[in-house]
Amino acid sequence: MTTYLTDLDLHPLDALAVRIRDRSATAAVVGLGYVGLPLLVSMHASGFRVIGVDADERKIDGLRSRRSHIGDIADSAVEAMDRATFSSNPALLADADVIVLCLPTPLTDGSPDLTMVLTAAEDVARSLKPGAMVVLESTTYPGTTEEFLRPILETSGLRAGRDFALAYSPERIDPGNRHHRLDTTPKIVAGLTDRCRELAVSFYSAFVQTVVTTSSPREAEMAKLIENTYRQVNIALVNELAVLAHGLGVDIWESLRAAATKPFGYQPFWPGPGVGGHCISIDPTYLSWRAGQQLGHRVEFIEHANEVNNRMPDYVVTRVGEALNDAGRPIKGSKVLGVGVA
Question: In the chain, N or C terminus with fewer CB closer than 10 Å?
């Protein structure tokens, strides 16, 4: 006589593992911006039924009409999502087995603002069920998943690591990059427990080629900040060198191109009017702020890099004015073409 196991015979997290493997799980994304929507599309393409939740009714209306609001996602990709539900109502998360939070983490008055993440966590807690998994992808400082997200989710009466899985996997989306896509960029994954990590690895392996694990969410949270701090500090360095080179009568562009010919021990960065985008101008400050709160001092490299990069817009305007004067043209009434402005 053959005995068949059903979900009723399994621990809720073991049942989740089965549903992830056979793609019968429903996966939800909260926050359908440049991170969340590509993630939702990839989940659906790998075989999961998906739910997309966003507070912006205009986004939801567009997605229901099968229109994409993200440049990297074609309308045809949204049209192909025949097993997708889009809503501004977080109550629909009650139907999800996996819930991924992709909310912005901006700065407010120079300090980290986790309001959108924590509000979403409260919404999730109201609908959380045994055997679900919650993953945070938003960039944040070490300790957020365990110290802030976990207590909110446990107001559901469920215990993280026992009744539901909790994981962290920082987003690595590079908008407009056709070579390093979501599926080809290694994904860092960490769990509150070993079991949480295993479930998260199984889930992301369904649509990402390479998954890299860390021992706890703190290391994964720190890894993302290291990546962006590295870029911010090096951009500031080359910006400061550009200012210095001008004063020394050196063509910084020629010098940088020459330096870039070294095949080892050097990675080229290029000067510009500061830093922009969603990440580089914000994320390093999360790390410096956290150090100040816990250790009593901020990260001097990051603080100096912020100062240098914040000075660059005024410096560029000054240089443009000098170039116009050299050409015998007044600043007022002159037309300036910006190339590469996104």
Answer: N
